[in-house]
Amino acid sequence: MVNAVVLLNIENAKSRLSPFFDLDQRRNMVLIMFSRVLNALEDFPVTVLPRTHKAAIDGVRDSDDINNGIMDIRRKLNDDLLVLPCDLPLLTTSDVLKLMGNSMTLSTAPSQDGGTSGLFIPREVEFTPRFGKNSFALHTGEAEEMGIPLRVYRSDSFRDLDTMEDLRWLLKTIGRNELADYIRSLDLELPLD
Fold this sequence. Notes:
The protein is of the alpha/beta class. It has a single domain (2-185), classed as Spore Coat Polysaccharide Biosynthesis Protein SpsA, Chain A (Alpha-Beta Complex), CATH 3.90.550.10. It contains 7 helices and 6 strands. The protein has a 6-stranded mixed β-sheet with strand order 2-1-3-5-4-6, with helices on both faces. The radius of gyration is 16 Å and the shape is elongated.
């Protein structure tokens, strides 16, 4: 069985977009994308792993806290694990299935900025997630070092949304979807050129 973990950051949502959107608007954007990810995962059991600032308060790096949380969930479930961020505005069930491939191979989907927008870890594979800055290189490096075959799945559907450049790309690439419609409904003057 495949269990999905969705990484959710709502507390300080999309802080790099704060010059253009207030916190409520950014939280709404995250919730719209989160809903899209959950819809793509409708056939899978889902565990939501919220990112909070508790890690910083306790003196632990946020990425360490996230990765430890994923490992805790993996130990409890003892199943194949699919890890996705909550901010994939184009994700579909078909993309999820393509990422998982044959369901026996470690698979990853890189984001546009060197991160990881999808990671599938089969139950039999001993692998420690390395989400955080440059996580795609860390994941591929770890797999190579451990001699684990790694399948890389590239798709615009795994492009996450963090910056105004990402938002420009989204609005130019697609005509309409839930997030694009919400952004346009705000009727803000945004630097989209």
